[in-house]
Design brief:
The structure is a single chain. The chain has helices spanning 31-34, 39-52, 65-74, 94-101, 141-154; strands at residues 15-19, 57-61, 81-85, 107-111, 133-136. The chain is of the alpha/beta class. A 5-stranded parallel beta sheet has the order 2-1-3-4-5, with helices on one face. The radius of gyration is 15 Å and the shape is globular. It starts with 14 loop residues before the first strand and ends with a helix. The protein binds 1,3,4-trihydroxy-5-OXO-cyclohexanecarboxylic acid (DQA).
């Protein structure tokens, strides 16, 4: 049975998973900080978690801030919520934080490392004030936790 009346997931919009700059190098970049899992592992974990909860997942990564902002604008009306690791833009980008408000859906901010245990410049986030929740220091499982929380919020 695949019609909308019998399938509880049919009317749910997918979750958007966004990863910012340098996260394409996960697995080889500073593995003592970020671990050995790759971005493909992150996406696989996120897809599995979303599917378990009855959501589809769209995943994208870019090293270009304008591209990221365009994707966020294009997601208006098309996603249930956004899980984002803004990476270095966390600490620098007013423009990214402004864009994340546009879709009007819950935002979950994820950091693989515990940014609060690292350099002082990583302690401030432009994204946190507009996020429903922030997960840091849980490794790539943080993405799973964020998706679970997002599903609770929009469920
Ligand atoms: C990061 C932490 C940021 O400070 C850093 O610039 C990253 C990754 C994390 O996932 O721990 O690129 O967001």
């Amino acid at each position: 049975m695949s019609d909308a009346t019998s399938d509880p997931t049919a009317q749910r919009l997918p979750i958007l998973l966004l990863n910012g700059p340098n996260l394409n190098t996960l697995g080889t970049r500073e593995p003592e900080i970020y671990g050995s899992d790759t971005l493909a592992d992150v996406v696989e974990l996120a897809e599995r978690t979303a599917a378990e909860l009855g959501f589809g997942l769209r995943a994208a990564q870019t090293n270009h801030e304008g591209q990221m902002i365009d994707w966020i604008h294009e997601s208006v009306g098309k996603v249930s919520g956004i899980v984002i690791n803004p990476a270095g833009w966390t600490h620098t980008s007013v423009a990214l934080a402004d864009a994340l408000v546009v879709p009007g859906v819950p935002i979950l901010e994820v950091h693989i490392s515990n940014v609060h245990r690292r350099e002082a410049f990583r302690h401030h986030s432009y994204v946190s004030p507009i996020a429903e929740g922030v997960i840091a220091g849980c490794g790539i499982r943080g993405y799973e936790f964020a998706i679970r929380r997002l599903a609770e919020l929009v469920g």
